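Explain my protein.
***
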Amino acid sequence: MASRRHTGPVLTGIFTLCALAVGFLGVNAALDLTQPARADADTVIEFQVQPGESVAAVADRLQHQGLIRSALVFRVAAQARRGVVRPGIYNLTSDMTTAAVVSRLVGGQPDQPLVIVPPGMRLVVVPPGRRVTQYPTLFSSLPAFNASNFLKIVSSGVVPGGGKISASYWFVAPKHGGTYYALEGYLLPGTYFVPEGDDEIKVIDRLLDALGDKLCPGPDDAHADAYVHDRAQCEAHAAQLTVGTSHVSVFVEMRKRYFTTDDVAALYNALSLASLVARMTPSDAGASGVADVYYNRYLTAHANRLSPYREYVQNLDADASTEYVRDSTHPPTNGNWWTPLGAPAVSVDSWSAYNTAVRDNTGLPPGPIAAPTWVDIAAAAAADDPMASPYYFVAADRCGQAHFAKTLSAFQSVAARTSLGCFPG
């Protein structure tokens, strides 16, 4: 009976301790989300706010670009100030706290006036890491844009009545067997001023031209695509990558890294790896490190060798590739692409070559799974430069910050930690 008389106070004490513990963890988590996304005060990012853009949309883009850890925390803080986000261009760095970013954008003055969209044009922002099935929504404001025709073209790589796109754009590979979309990975993300009369064919040309301009930039802005459609001229005027202390043609570097003499195949492989990078990290700042990890794993599989740490790493083991095949075979009806896997990756659509967790699926997936930025592509092209990365594993925390490990046991510890929240790099 005595023990029963004390049950109430004991349980009360336990509940009190639990409540305090939960409250402590919640406060710490909230404080963590307000901290800088990463300690990088040197890289200034020009962040644009468009007229009429909602606080929620601004918050989402800030998190996507790696400038804040949590869009939700930003929205709450902005609403508490009861201010407005003024249109304009703001110079931000990723070492700013959420409070500092809110202060700059809510009620503050932009560093530069916003570029005005010319009459007859539409501003379209293509975020990185999107698959081609997500593009129709981005261009839906164009009256002449036909989403159904767009998807047919990007799937087949053929323009109705106009022939194969690979014939017009020499650097685009014909559709590979076992892939879903011929133009996956080729439609470069970025900010575009698009004429209101553009249809789906002109939109595709515009995005492919943008990638070509990066591969072989013209002599000046007025002639940015001067070399794009001539293979010899494009290769002769290729973009230069900094590899170690040298400047190297992007095509030379890709051929070397992906063991081929064909620039089309080399770019295709670089896009495939770069697309995994784009899905792993939302910020260009993390591209190089993530690309190095995937390339290290690609090399061990290609050479059928052990890692320096005596571990056999034969798969890229990228969850995003499994999400891609899942959504390709069973497209979401609610438009929510890229939802996290609800089961171990190796058990989801394990029949597909896109599932890079399956033991027999060594090397790269059959093709790109999303659109990488030019920074992602350059990182994939120059991966494993003379200052080779020692890491073979990577996990992203809930804010998209990448964390690295050399061995499987170290990775398991990193993955367990990153699954709990956001942490400094």
Q: What stands out?
A: Strands lie at 45-49, 88-92, 121-126, 158-159, 163-164, 190-195, 240-243, 246-249, 393-396, 402-405.
